[in-house]
Amino acid sequence: MKSRLQRLPYGLRLLLATLSLGIGTGLVGIACHYLLEGVQRLAFGQDKGDLLQQINHAGGFRRFLVLGVTGVLAAGFWYILQRRHKILSIRKQIDLVGDRDPAPLAHLLHATMQVAIVGAGASVGKEGAPREVGALLAGCLGKAFSLAIKERKVLIACGAGAGLAAVYQVPFASSLFVFETLGLAYHWKNVLLVLSSTYLATWVAQPIVGHTAMYHMSLVHWSASSFFQAVLVALLVTPLALAFRYLAKRASRKRRKDGTILWALPLAFMVLAGIVTFYPIFMGNGQVLAQALLSSQSIPYLPLTLAVKGLLVYLLLSNGAYGGTLTPSFALGIGSGYLVTLLMTVVGIHLDPALGMLLGAAVFLGTTLQAPLTAIALSLGFTGQSGALILPLALAAGVSYVIQNRWEKR
Questions:
Q1: What is the torsion angle, in degrees rounded to the nearest 10, for the CA atoms of residue 389, residue 393, residue 395 and residue 398?
Q2: Are 228 and 53 in contact, with CB atoms under 8 Å apart?
Q3: Residues sharing a CB contact under 8 Å with residue 325, sequence separation 6 or more, in sequence order
Q4: Is residue 95 classed as helix, strand or coil in its secondary structure?
Q5: Using CA atoms, how far apart are residues 3 and 19, in angstroms rounded to an integer?
């Protein structure tokens, strides 16, 4: 016997599912925002200016203690969860539509822990959680509205993009992310569904998450020399990004899930805790490091700092933690682009450091995400820059893309 929803015209059901998804993922973004802020307040006390000031105010011992406890709790949580449930990636959820449904509660708890460890200072990205919950919500809505398998797959991809858009307030970049990373076809109906869900999610979350740029940065301009700088940054930063992408993929493939996680993950957190006791710049998903660079703050031994940051991400992911690499990649790209600009200054070539950082971010993100268009849009959206910088960023991302293809063929 047909339910009331099934009696509705198919087009109306698809529309209602898409609108529900946009609203739902917007609320997911709000929930992630409050959870992250709540954990940060619990871990480091009340807000004292920006995040770095808040972390510094907490003191070295408190930072050490918070990360040590977080490592033990996270290890026990993921060991128990993965013994009882199979955690499906977004790609797996799309592939298994109609054959197998993810366990809703297990995936919600899984996403909650990802946000919680980032709030406590773990060196992984927070973007995985809202994407996964958005995809989970989309799968439930597609089934509830009795949509065809094809539309349910598209809706899950939309949910992933909408979750990202809600948290970071970058709807256009999130839409590109869906097409570039999840392989959605550029069909007019798919484009309409993706844009509707991402922009609606952004609008719903905006009053709480805020619509200002994630990073504070003065307006950057470009000139004829910017094209030389774009090619130079692409040539020098792409190999670094390829190395990080290799490590991140290796960590995901070989992530500990058996009983060894109970000692390996707490130990990895203790290594991080020992470092941040004295060097709080390594706290969190890379936002602190990126903002320090964008604000022209001096960071001694920057090459070593970037190398350690990348290795800490690998250390946590390979030993059982879950999380994204988007924000760490952005921070590493900002730092790498800045280093290239400084290197040129040493040999007598003076280039714009601010533009170098944006070029580095676009190249690094484009490489790790394997999505150059998304990387350009994210670099502009995260820093509040105008579309006038598209030309040099596109050149850098394009040269980097060619290098990656040549490398993969070899």
A1: -150
A2: no
A3: 124, 125, 244, 248, 313, 317, 368
A4: helix
A5: 20
Look-up: residue for tokens 């973007």? Answer: 127
- Which residue, among 51, 38, 31, 67, has the nearest Cα to 321 in the 3D structure? 67
Give me the long-range contacts of 138-141 (CB less than 8 A, separation at least 24).
138/21, 139/93, 139/97, 139/101, 139/102, 140/104, 141/17, 141/20, 141/21, 141/24
Beta bridge partners of 125: 324
pLDDT at 3 over 70: no
Which is it for the CA torsion 309, 310, 311, 313, positive or negative?
A: positive
CB 310 within 8 A of CB 332: yes
- Sign, Cα dihedral of 213, 215, 216, 222: negative
Q: What number of other Cβ atoms are within 10 A of residue 202's Cβ?
A: 26
Q: How many helices (H) and strands (E) does the chain have?
A: 18, 0
Closest C-alpha to 67, from 89, 86, 40, 48:
40
Phi/psi for 256 (5° steps) reads: -70, 130
Contact between 338 and 144 (Cβ < 8 Å): no
Residue 15 tokens read as: 């529309």
Q: Tell me the one-letter amino acid at 372.
A: P
Predicted confidence (pLDDT) per residue in 23-73, tens digit: 999 999 999 999 999 999 999 987 656 777 888 888 899 999 999 999 999
Crossing angle of the two packed helices 372-383 and 149-168, in degrees rounded to 10: 30
Residue pair 333/137 in contact (Cβ under 8 Å)? The answer is no
Q: pTM surpassing 0.85?
A: yes
Beta-carbon contacts of 294 under 8 Å, excluding residues fewer than 6 positions away, are: 215, 216, 217, 334, 354, 357, 383
